Amino acid sequence: MSQELLFVAGITAFVSSLLTLLFAYLLFRIVLRDRLYQELDELSVTLKERLREGVLEAGRELKPEFRDEVRDGFKEALTGVMSGDLIEETAKRVAQNSSNIVEQGLGILFGKRNPEGRK
User: Fold this and answer.
1) pLDDT-based confidence at 113, cuts 50/70/90?
2) Is the distance from CB of 69 to CB of 79 less than 8 angstroms?
3) Which residue range is the domain that position 98 belongs to?
4) Phi/psi zone of residue 54: left (φ > 0), alpha (ψ -120 to 50 degrees), beta?
5) Could you tell me if 67 and 44 lie in one domain?
6) What is the arithmetic mean of pLDDT over 79-88?
7) Euclidean distance between CA atoms 103 and 101, whole angstroms
8) How confident is the model at residue 116 (pLDDT cuts 50, 70, 90)?
9) Same domain, 72 and 93
């Protein structure tokens, strides 16, 4: 008799748990889901607005500094070109790369291995 009572109690607990889960699911689907999605939509709109305002404000604050840095960069680039530093540096790099290519080509022709430090 006690086994039958334990069995009935177990089934009753299981059915009660299922009904509780079903009730919670229906409550969420019918009532809470629409409210939750509505609140999430409102939060996303608010977040977008705040983010947009923050980006625009940061742009307004940084614009003069950015403009000055760009101007200084152009001045420096033009000064380098006018003084020949850029052309001289480029010529050095071209000569160095060309000599490396010739050296590697001759090494391949004569069967020499490349030293570890070079490619």
Assistant:
1) low
2) no
3) 87-119
4) alpha
5) yes
6) 69
7) 5
8) low
9) no
